[in-house]
Write the structure tokens for this entry.
Amino acid sequence: MIRNILSTFVSRALVAVLNLAILLVASRHLGSAVWGQVSLLVLNLAVVQTINDIYTGSALVYFIPRTNLRAIYRGGITWTILCIIIVNAGFYIFGVGMKEQWIHVLVLSFMITLQAFNNILLLSTEKIWMYNFLQFLQPALVFFALCVNVFIIDMQSVMAYIVALYVSLAFCLMVSLTWMTLALRETRRQAEKFNSAQIFKNGVVNELGNLAHILSNRFNYYMLQANIAVVGIYASGSSLIESVWLISGSISPVILTYIANRQDMPENARITFLLSKISFLLALAGVVILYFLPPGVFTFLLGHDFEGVKGVMMYLAPGVLCISFSSIISHYYSAQGKQKILLTANASGLMVTLCTSYFFISRYGISGACYAAALSYATQSLVLVTVFMKQNHIGFLRLFSVKPDLTLLKR
């Protein structure tokens, strides 16, 4: 177990470094306008993948040991094809994202959702090493191919990133599909009757919550789309400030595993609350470091097109810190299968974005997008933390007390 947790932490840390390296290369050498196009492309792919995960996502893990793998895989492929066609048709008809990229979104969305489906099957069958390896390999290949396109072939358009995505996904798919072929051949076990309706029932609640969380900030990409260079600046600032989530993201698997295997609910709640506070304080330390870095550092790293990126980061920081605290609590509820609480919190945040983004952006531009996103993050965190503290009889002053935390750490 400890080896798996450490392996997951190392892979996440390496992926975070690779994503930062991709951002630096693309922004500095392709400019804010191209990075804005890339950000819209990636957001569309994320939306397609999240909707597709209703059937092929983490909710499927429970059913895999109990259902024939061939039946699950056939159902997953059928759902993936239908989902991609319908969602991408909606993107094209309503002009969501860059219309000129629609064919690439269509093909790449199939590749990325199939790869994510294979990864879930790897995870559920406890092939943790292979899962972490593929999680690392895909952005590593994007970075390598992007460097070749930019520095050797001299591509200066969004195609430099799109081609890199094709290369990385094609290679990872070859690896994961090879494993899937072998796994399907070895499937001889008799299993329970295949119940796709139950899979959808579990998946809808889970993935709608994830989609609401994604759009709580990323919906502003679409609102800023009229000026694609501004999208690039906003997306870069969001990515950089959200890097502090690596801390909570590393703690989350620990709390998820711990709670899933223990029935002492008061103890689970105390440990969750302690880890939430630790996550917040470490993230706060990261934000303070970023605050004291001169704006010229970010301009030097990203290029002169990104002059306002530090302002975006600082405006988003309060909301990002709220999520650093509440994300540990969200995994507390995930471990108990209480996805409806998470859906309620994330949907509240998305509603705030939908109700405020136009007002703020029309008056304050990119700063207004930050205001809307920070308010959205704060809202969903407030809902989640309030429910958690009320259910576990934790008083408000407990947020600031240190002595009980020190006692718990000593244990």
